[in-house]
C-alpha cells in the first residue's frame, strides 16, 4: 500500500472569518457566561445608572451643589464600572483573565458601588432643589443602587451555595475502628 492510501487528510479547512454561525463583531460577544438573571441585573445596572447620570446632567442650577456633584461623580462611575463588567463578561477578555478573579472583583465592585451610590442618592435627595429632573435622577439613583446591592446579595447567596456543596461530610466512626490494624489475620 502507498502512504497516500493509509494516511488521508484528517483535518478540515479553516472556515475563515466569514464562515460559521457568527461572523464579524458578533463573534467576539458571548452572553452565555452569565446566567439570565445576572445578565438582566447587569444590563439594568448599566441602564439605570446611565439614566441617573443623564437626568442629573439636565439639572440647570443648584443651591447646594455638593450633593449634585457627588451624585454626578458616583452615577458616572457606576455606569462606567457596570459597562466595564459587561464588557469583561461578554468578550474574550474573560478567557484571558482568571475567572475567579473576575468574579471576586465583580463581587466587591457591586458591594462598593451599591453602597456609595445609595449614599450619593441619599445626600442628593437631602440637598436638591426639588425640580423634576432632580426627582428623576434620585429615583434612578435609588433603583440603580438597589440593583447593585441585589446583584451583590445574589452573588453572596451563590457563593454560600457553592461552599455548602464543597464541604465534605463528616461521618461519625467509632474510635475503635480507627485504631484497628489493617491486617487482622482474616482470610
Automatic annotation (TrEMBL):
The chain crosses the membrane at residues 77-95, 107-125, 137-157. It is a multi-pass membrane protein. InterPro entries: Marvel, MARVEL-CKLF_proteins. Residues 33-160 form the MARVEL domain. GO terms for cellular component: early endosome membrane; membrane; plasma membrane; recycling endosome membrane. The keyword DNA repair does not apply. It is found in: Membrane. One of its GO terms (biological process) is regulation of protein stability. Pfam families: MARVEL. Residues 167-187 are annotated as: Disordered. Keywords: Membrane, Transmembrane, Transmembrane helix. This is CKLF like MARVEL transmembrane domain containing 6.
